[in-house]
Task: structure prediction
Amino acid sequence: MRGLVGVIESIYSKDEVAVKVDPEHMVDPALSVHAEATRRMRERFVSQVSEEARNLLTKEEVEFPANYVLLVRTEDLESAK
Result:
């Protein structure tokens, strides 16, 4: 997962830091895995909503952005310059 860019979301301990990764800086295979996971989440969401509710959803609500969060150790992080 080297080279990913993100923002620290939570610090649980020195060995458990949640980092929200910026998908715009991803490369394969992480990018393709994230894209597929996002597609499946959206598909599942739409399939679990009633037809009536589905008709009320906006395009933005159906095509929601999925967060990509990694749990890493503090020693594995470096400051962006």
